[in-house]
Amino acid sequence: MILRAAATASAPALLLRPWRDDDADALLEVYRDPVLLARTRHPLTTRAEARRWLTRHRQGWAAGRWFSFAVHESHPDGDADRLVAHILLKDVVPGRADAEVGYWTAAHARGRGVAPRALEAVTRWAFTRFAAGGLTRLELLHQLDNPASCRVAEKTGYGFVEVLPARPPFPLDGHRHVRWRA
Question: Ramachandran region of residue 7, left (φ > 0), alpha (ψ -120 to 50) or beta?
Answer without folding.
Answer: beta
